[in-house]
Amino acid sequence: MPLLLLKDLPRYECLLEAAREFPDLDPSAAEAFLHLLRASDEAYGINARNMAAHGISAGRFSVLMLLWRGDQVRSKAPAGTMQCDCGPRTPASLADACGVTRATMTGLIDTLERDGFVKREPDPADRRMMSVHLTPKAEAFLRDYMPGHFKIISSIMSALTEPERKTLVRLLVKVQQQAATLAGTPQAVPN
Question: Where on the phi/psi map is residue 121: left (φ > 0), alpha (ψ -120 to 50), or beta?
Fold first, then answer.
């Protein structure tokens, strides 16, 4: 379901007019916010249709990506560089990484296991824990799916130059940080 349930965004002049009635409305903030939601909806919709055409959901894809290339040795990364945190993971660490409940993650893992994409095994470091691994079927699926997935991402972002993309990332990180701050801080409700 889209985040923004408006087919047409209001013109800036309409936002200015609304600000006269609602003094807390910052027209430029509202305009930027609505365009952010619209762009997110459009990009997500394209991605979701591609995933559906390949029989995968966003949640299941996230789990596969967190597990991707888990059996490969990652110790060859140059000193001081950040390594990808991939590979076998516990259901709890997968839930934390995806920002979902453990029950939701159990459901995702159950369906991935049912479809032959993952397997659960006792964790080699702690036999009381379970580790989740990709199967060869999942590796083959990802090798087939990823080129088209990355082509779609590149196509969506092709409207921007490389410097514009870097600027966009910097700006979106600022918005994400502010949203996280607001989410973690109780907001006073005006009387």
Answer: beta
Residue 112, helix vs strand vs coil = helix
Strand-pairing partners, residue 122, are: 130
pLDDT of 74: 40
Provide the residue ranges of all domains of the chain, joining segments of one domain with +. Answer: 6-53
Residues 6+ apart with CB under 8 A from 158: none
Asked whether the beta carbons of 153 and 144 are under 8 A apart, the reply is no
- Rg of the chain, C-alpha, whole Å: 21
Residue 138 burial class via C-beta count within 10 angstroms: exposed 0-12, middle 13-18, buried 19 and up: buried
132 CB burial (10 A radius; 0-12, 13-18, 19+): buried
* CA distances for 36 relative to 31, 33, 44, 173, 182, angstroms: 9, 5, 12, 13, 18
Q: What residue type is assigned to position 72 of the chain?
A: Q
pTM, rounded to two decimals? 0.75
What pLDDT is attached to residue 191?
37
Helices (H), 54-126: 58-67, 91-98, 102-114
